[in-house]
Amino acid sequence: MIVTHLPGFYAKRRAITYLKQILPYFTVVDSNPNIILGRVKDPIEAVNIIKSNITPKTTILRIIPVNEVRSVKLADVKSSILNLLSKIGEGSFAIRLEGHLLDDNGKIMRRIDSIVKLADEIDRSVNLKNPDILVYVKIVKFRGRWVSAIYVGSPNNIVSTVKMFQ
Predict the structure, then answer these.
(1) How much is the pTM?
(2) In terms of residue numbers, what domain contains 121?
């Protein structure tokens, strides 16, 4: 799971302490500035627990469940997405990509080109405003190398505390 938080050491410390209090099985795997990468048994259950317990004074900004972690190569991400989509029921979809993927030659692709190539083989209707299924790919640095964190599921499982407490 990916947790973004307010800037600063104490904000990170407060976010980690909070997560460990309400999710006793939460383990910090890595952290970067403003991002905590954690491991939980069930990311969707963890998001629901956080949603029901979070307060407006939290330093946490966003919680993103992760189904799979893969390399940043387009082919790896595409096969993972197709596999995850095959396990989910029908419905419209949207793709959100944060970061850049690499093509077969190892060159950085433009985000829009990556999104088009990812969507090519998905046989579902596209709904960018209100999708039933969100395909979310975030490129993060994990232990010194870039990886893609992939989430495929309901858009309601990605929590923004800023939107929650408006």
Answers:
(1) 0.91
(2) 68-156
